Amino acid sequence: METEMIAPTVKAAPIASAMDAPMIDLRDVAKSFVLHTQGSVAIEVMRGATLQVRASECVALTGASGAGKSTLMRMIWGNYRVGAGSIRVAGVELRDADPRSVLALRRDRLGHVSQFLRVVPRVPAREVVAEPLLALGTPRDEAIERSEALLARLNIPPALWHLSPTTFSGGEQQRVNIARGFVHPFPVLLLDEPTASLDGANRATVLALIAEAKARGAAILGIFHDTAAREQVCDREVDVSAFTP
Amino acid sequence: MTAEAALSTPPADRQDAMPTPMPEVPLLQVRGLTRRYGARIGCADVGFDLWPGEVMGIVGESGSGKSTLLSCLAGHLTPDAGEVLWRGPDGTIRDVLAMAEPERRLLGRTDWAFVHQNPRDGLRMGVSAGGNVGERLMAVGARHYGRIRSTATDWLGRVEIDAARIDDAPRSFSGGMQQRLQIARNLVTHPRLVLMDEPTGGLDVSVQARLLDLLRGLVREMGLSAIVVTHDLAVVRLLAHRLMVMKDGRVVEAGLTDQVLDDPQHAYTQLLVSSVLQV
Ligand SMILES: Nc1ncnc2c1ncn2[C@@H]1O[C@H](COP(=O)(O)OP(=O)(O)OP(=O)(O)O)[C@@H](O)[C@H]1O
Ligand SMILES: Nc1ncnc2c1ncn2[C@@H]1O[C@H](COP(=O)(O)OP(=O)(O)OP(=O)(O)O)[C@@H](O)[C@H]1O
Ligand SMILES: [Mg+2]
Ligand SMILES: [Mg+2]
Fold first, then answer.
1. Is the ipTM of this complex over 0.85?
2. Which residue of chain B comes nearest to A14, CA vs CA?
């Protein structure tokens, strides 16, 4: 980890060139749901969604409850199908993408901190956090070391590292989730309420992690109900109500 | 690691740590697989590709053809039509259905493994637990008794069977222990493809979790591929990269697991997903 840090001068050039093309690029995206169990009518929930997020930029999605913030995030993550239009993430078109390319995207370029942690029971917290690195082929010792460093930074007591997070408190689970999202320097990050249910010190740590990710060139899209947090880390806001049909 | 390094190919200094690069040919290509039982459809026109390191889940109501499909793939049942193309370790692609019986049996002992719904179908009930595991090692050429026994002991430990039970016959085991033993017997030879029919069905949640973790580790570290039939959508979400939904012998929906579960398109999948509380 620390030993792997590369001097800022080395990484400046490639990031500047990556800044030209948006890392997240939505054009005229629409989405409707057809509920076959409820009369099969198509419910249109989004139309004309267009937005771009570039490297080193953090954009917040805003809008009233039900406006479509989560729907938009899910289409970018790929667990909701793109209804119409185009979504490109790190150059990959998600509309009608085959599962394999979405999986590859999630493995090395697209990170996600979901609102709730979902893990295999009995897997220790340190393994849960190390998993994205192991999936990339990082040697086990190094992956665990980086995982533990991040858990420590997020104030998860070492006594908990070998326990499954399924029995952790809500705030502890959320921090494990955040550690897992930040353990690999994903160039694109989706954050769903990353600071909800965190106390002052932990909230500050998460905001620092976001700022560091931006500084290394990550393109970040997030939902933050925490207004102060949003103002501190986000460069601009996109109100998704504008895309409500 | 820097952001731009993660953007495209791995940097040179990390290449040796990467798993072997994914070849651009699937491990398994299934086309038009059909099996009837008289006038009744077992499975019809099933097709998919499976890539190395990929886990595919199959869900569907009882009688939808999941076991029929798996048995056809494994060669336990002869399909009426279709192809099962397998890419061997040497890179050659063969139609498994066209192989001679001895060759297919060899495949079933080496590169392929089959975990039956009922452990009695996958174990030798009169042979000791250690023997059940060791037998598979011997089938692929292991000869050193001490090493076979220590590997068997190691695998019993991985599936949480007390080493003290190594000389007991599976007859004296509980159903859950038998299932764990069957899994150890199948994975000990490091197959490249594992077919599993409801592997965690009769197991308590904590043992299920242990097996899921074990499988995920093998998938990650050895590039193991698996096809897993299950009723449990929570298991599928945690284990499978891709999901196939069957109804009346046919595939009605297939795709990325979380997309099929969170944004199901077909009426039957919507029903299936909405009938469980939260997965
Ligand atoms: N899987 C789904 N099936 C049917 N309708 C859905 C589905 N997901 C979202 N919707 C609908 O899409 C609309 C937008 O919902 P979404 O969850 O995106 O809102 P949100 O802005 O995230 O709200 P909140 O702030 O409350 O989380 C809502 O009308 C919702 O009911
Ligand atoms: N040996 C057989 N003879 C006649 N019909 C059969 C035979 N085996 C299966 N079938 C029929 O084929 C269809 C598919 O059965 P299959 O066992 O593949 O379903 P399944 O999806 O595995 O169900 P389950 O979830 O209950 O295990 C069913 O209609 C079944 O009755
Ligand atoms: Mg939401
Ligand atoms: Mg069956």
1. yes
2. B4
